[in-house]
Write a structure and sequence with these properties.
- By secondary structure, the protein is mostly beta strands.
- The chain folds into three domains: 192 residues, Cupredoxins -  blue copper proteins (Immunoglobulin-like), CATH 2.60.40; 151 residues, Cupredoxins -  blue copper proteins (Immunoglobulin-like); 178 residues, Sandwich (Immunoglobulin-like).
- 11% of the residues lie in helices and 37% in strands.
- It is built from nine helices and 34 strands.
- Strands 11, 12, 13, 14, 16, 18, 19 and 21 form an eight-stranded mixed β-sheet that branches. A five-stranded mixed β-sheet has the order 4-5-10-9-7. Strands 15-23-22-17-20 form a five-stranded mixed β-sheet, with no helix packed on it.
- The longest helix is centred in the first third of the chain and has 18 residues.
- 51% of the residues are buried.
């Protein structure tokens, strides 16, 4: 038996033993009872107060036909700068929130839906009670108060529903919005701002003949994840940006439930990233394309200087493979490559989970050069200072915390062999406040993990069902230490490997089948329960979620 197999077996035995000795957290149960109410704290003095409401609404997604029934976030400022909340007119997306590092924020959240709801501030480093843990979901007609200080550096985050077993459907119906954070370090840079700083939220949706949203049919399709028939950008189909001959900052968010994008120009012109998940990079990164999984963000420096007025560029999701189970990719011709028909609003080419096949080529948005100008900032060679974490900073270099990804049993994807438990953790999920941990995320090789008869990765049913998972860790952000491809799908991996940004701070990382990703994550400032889960939202709702207890 190889040393790799021995190591993974030891890891499996470690977390199997932990499962048997799971810690019950009775103090956490108080959050689920009427004995604990969410009220404004007398000793918290906010700089900004916002009233947030979620309700049923109708949005004009298409230029013709009926409006679409959606769930909608509305918000307005009670105290603080009025530009803290930027509503988006005629849109189902929630308002853009503009925060400043160091601000103290209080948000009154009112649930006007007919079902429970809670908001997660994805990417923000906040206390447990304000993180959007599903145990804090409030019932229709109730109010919840969030209070936190903005500790994040300048960058782009977002907020969305995180209701237990309803995250996918509530986000799909509209419960998401962008967060933009600035700080003194960013203000010293001459970066595109105002009309030249543009959000770009990518989502896919399906609609019926009356412009109403349609969703998944059947449990098996849910396992694959939702793939829509129509690409929406900032809540609109067929997006065209009118741009001038100068540099822009585009804040790109993958707000889709499960679709993975390979962002690029058709002619191979490199893209330049100036930021990744919720933070500017130390220096710009240039690549032929960028992979963007659900929950990930990338800030693009797009410079249209020298372009001819009236010309147009098209950004695509380029063909790739390896992100879906082999059975799916065989049905679609190696990840859908060569089958990239949009399929229209109601006629997608997808099978199994419908919609545009994962990995196929399709148009995202066009950029029309509308006006010539001469003033344009220059891309800085250095953006911000980022201390690089190494194994010398962790206290478990030789014993990383495992996060093992498993798609079996087929209707219950799991982490470390377990589904989500609202108020339990296993010993390896208990970490000390102030510690910095090394974490290894990998696909479980089921042939050597005590699940005999299912086959190794790349073979048998376990391998056939293996797919890419975007793993999101709540709480403090982390750094990628290493990526290593150990599986058999090397040809497929070659179509995506040059698009990963491993620099800077992240909170979501895409782990390909057969890949091992090591990260270094601090657990500082706040005690409590902080989730980690697959950000394929259908997988999350099926239980592919666990939590750390920081104490």
């Amino acid at each position: 038996m190889s040393s790799t197999t021995n190591y993974k077996r030891r890891q499996f035995l470690q977390y199997s033993a932990g499962a048997a000795a799971a810690s019950f957290l009775p103090q956490v149960l108080l959050a689920q009872t009427n004995t604990v109410k969410s009220r404004a704290s007398a000793n918290f003095h906010p700089d900004v107060e916002i009233e947030f409401t979620t309700r049923n609404a109708f949005a004009p997604i298409f230029q013709q036909g009926p409006k679409t029934a959606v769930f909608k976030y509305n918000a307005h400022v009670l105290k603080g700068p009025q530009n803290t909340v930027l509503p988006l007119k005629n849109n189902y997306l929630g308002p853009i929130l503009n925060f400043i590092k160091g601000q103290k924020i209080r948000i009154y959240f009112n649930n006007k839906l007919d079902e429970p709801s809670v908001i997660h501030w994805h990417g923000l480093h906040v206390p447990q009670k304000s993180d959007g843990h599903p145990m804090y979901a409030i019932q229709p007609g109730e109010q919840f108060v969030y209070e936190f200080e903005v500790k994040n550096r300048a960058g782009t985050s977002f907020y969305h529903s995180h209701t237990h077993e309803r995250t996918a459907t509530q986000v799909y119906k509209g419960l998401a919005g962008l967060i933009q954070i600035t700080d003194d370090e960013e203000q010293k840079l001459d970066l595109p701002s105002g009309e030249y700083d543009i959000p770009m939220v990518l989502q896919d949706r399906s609609f019926n003949s009356r412009n109403q949203l349609t969703y998944l049919r059947g449990m098996r399709n849910r396992v694959m994840g939702f793939l829509g028939e129509q690409i929406l950008v900032n809540g609109k189909p067929n997006m065209r940006f009118d741009v001038k001959t100068r540099a822009y900052r585009f804040r790109v968010l993958n707000g889709s439930n499960s679709r993975i994008y390979k962002l690029g120009w058709e002619d191979g012109t490199p893209l330049i990233a100036m930021g990744t998940d919720a933070g500017l990079l130390e220096k710009p990164v240039s690549k032929p394309y960028f992979m963007l999984a659900p929950g990930e963000r990338v800030e693009l420096w797009l410079d249209f200087s020298g372009r001819k007025v009236g010309s147009e560029l098209v950004m695509y999701s380029l063909p790739h493979s390896g992100t879906m189970p082999m059975m799916y990719e065989r049905m679609h011709g190696r990840g859908g490559m060569g089958m990239g028909m949009m399929g229209g609003r109601r006629g997608g080419m997808g099978m199994m989970s419908g919609g545009i096949p994962q990995g196929s080529k399709f148009k995202i948005a066009s950029f029309h050069i509308s006006k010539k100008v001469t003033d344009s900032p220059t891309l800085p060679s250095h953006l911000v200072n980022i201390p690089r974490l190494t194994e010398r900073d962790v206290d478990n270099a030789n014993n990383p915390i495992p996060i093992a990804l498993r798609m079996m049993p087929i209707m219950s994807p799991r982490l470390n062999g377990m589904s989500f438990s609202m108020n339990r953790v296993i010993p390896l999920e208990e970490v000390e406040l102030g510690s910095i941990k090394k974490i290894k995320i990998f696909h479980e090789q089921m042939g050597h993990m005590g699940r005999g008869g299912m086959g190794m990765m790349g073979g048998g049913m376990g391998g056939m069902m293996s797919m890419a998972h975007p793993i999101h860790l709540h709480g403090q952000q982390y750094q990628v230490l290493s990526r290593k491809m150990t599986g058999s799908r090397q040809d497929a991996y070659a179509t995506v490997k040059d698009g990963f940004i491993n620099e800077g701070w992240k909170d979501t990382v895409l782990v390909m089948p057969g890949e091992q990703v090591e990260i270094i994550k601090p657990f500082q400032d706040y005690k409590g329960l902080f989730l980690y889960h697959c950000h394929n939202l259908e997988h999350e709702d099926l239980g592919m979620m666990r939590q750390f207890y920081v104490g």
